[in-house]
């Protein structure tokens, strides 16, 4: 196999090498500003904990804690994650809670008066998307706390930005802004053999120079190759699990339909949902998507099963 011209930016080693060092912080600033889409304009950042893994021992978890300074002087905290999909939303809520709690002084809390800095979590989802159909098709999810009834923002200073890279399919000629350009290189860097004409900007020229595979020394190549293998292995496992799940779902659906062929539509749906809960232990949102029923219906079936166990 011939050597690549550029490294894969979303492999763990490359991500840390490119975005996790002080000399390259202008690259991360540019990426973050693209993700904020004009809502924030970061001019400087400080790596609070350069790079660390979370409380779990998962392979492939990369976290940067950053203290950012905006062009208006305000400071806020960002945590950038390159992470797996297990309990993703709950884990990000946990990490954001830690970032908030860690701001509390050990003494004189009354004088501090909960002067909490803004906190944002940025997650690059490589190779997977959210399970819910309405969420899984978008490229970018920009989440904040809002009023459920009116949709008005309740609290602006806690936010979650999820990037589903697998859904970004634009080609070079379709790139409209720096966010498009960043998503394009994150998705396609390792497949390119030269910098595209649509990326002829100083920031991207620097990126392409430091991302050249040929510039890695022997030790760096070994670390990169191990990181890339881990990424490929994880993707192979994910695809296998997805295939097994789809086959199990299909079998369960066929079983439910066969058993309920003489019954009414609702009774057949009940049987299908019951199989998905009992046999496959699927979550409610996955069952809603697979069985084509409402969330209330799934919760009713689950409540019935729980009551029958008593």
Describe the structure.
This protein has 11 helices and 6 strands. It has helices spanning 12-19, 25-36, 88-101, 109-112, 133-136, 178-188, 202-210, 218-259, 265-278, 284-291, 295-309, and strands at 42-47, 62-70, 75-82, 118-125, 140-146, 153-164. Helix 2 packs across helix 6, helix 8 (218-259) runs antiparallel to helix 9 and helix 9 packs across helix 11 (295-309). The longest helix is centred in the C-terminal third of the chain and has 42 residues, at 218-259. Mean pLDDT is 83; it is low at 50-59.
What characteristics describe this protein?
310 residues; alpha/beta; six-stranded mixed β-sheet; 11 helices; 6 strands; 16% strand
Brief description of this entry?
45% of the residues lie in helices and 16% in strands. It is an alpha/beta fold and 310 residues long. It has a 6-stranded mixed sheet, with helices on both faces.
What value does the Rg take, in angstroms? 23 Å
Q: What structural category arises from helix and sheet content?
A: alpha/beta
Strand order in the sheet with the most strands: 1-2-3-4-6-5
Question: Poorly predicted ranges (pLDDT <50, ≥5 residues)?
Answer: 50-59
Q: How many beta-strand segments? A: 6
The percentage of residues in β strands lies in 15-25%
How helix-rich are the residues, as a percent range?
A: 40-55%
Distance between the termini: 60 Å
- Report the major sheet: 6 strands, mixed
Give me the number of helical elements: 11
Question: What is the string of helix and strand elements?
Answer: HHEEEHHEHEEHHHHHH
On the 0 to 100 scale, the average pLDDT is: 83
**What spatial form do the alpha-carbon principal axes imply?**
globular
């Amino acid at each position: 196999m011939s050597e690549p011209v550029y490294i894969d930016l979303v492999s763990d080693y490359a991500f840390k090498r490119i975005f996790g060092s002080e000399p390259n912080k202008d690259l991360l600033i540019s990426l973050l500003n693209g993700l904020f889409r004009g809502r924030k304009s970061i001019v400087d950042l400080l790596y609070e904990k350069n790079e660390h893994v979370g409380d779990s021992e998962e392979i492939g978890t990369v976290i940067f804690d950053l203290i950012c300074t905006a062009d208006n002087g305000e400071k806020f905290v960002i945590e950038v994650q390159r992470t797996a999909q297990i309990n993703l939303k709950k884990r990000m809520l946990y990490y954001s809670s830690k970032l908030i709690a860690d701001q509390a002084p050990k003494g004189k809390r009354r004088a501090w008066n909960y002067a909490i800095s803004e906190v944002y979590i940025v997650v690059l989802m490589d190779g997977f998307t959210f399970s819910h159909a309405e969420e899984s098709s978008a490229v970018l999810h920009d989440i904040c706390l809002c009023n459920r009834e009116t949709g008005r923002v309740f609290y602006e200073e806690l936010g979650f930005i999820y990037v589903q890279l697998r859904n970004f399919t634009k080609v070079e000629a379709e790139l409209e802004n720096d966010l498009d350009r960043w998503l394009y290189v994150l998705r396609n860097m390792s497949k390119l053999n030269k910098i595209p004409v649509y990326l002829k900007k100083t920031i991207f020229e620097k990126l392409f120079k430091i991302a050249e595979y040929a510039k890695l020394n022997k030790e760096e190549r070994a670390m990169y190759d191990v990181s890339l293998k881990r990424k490929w292995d994880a993707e192979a496992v994910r695809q296998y699990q997805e295939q097994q799940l789809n086959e199990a779902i299909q079998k369960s659906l066929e079983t439910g339909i066969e058993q309920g062929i003489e019954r009414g539509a609702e009774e057949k749906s009940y049987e299908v949902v019951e199989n998905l809960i009992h046999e496959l232990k699927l979550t409610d949102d996955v069952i809603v998507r697979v069985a084509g029923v409402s969330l209330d219906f799934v919760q009713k079936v689950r409540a019935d099963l729980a009551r029958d166990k008593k």
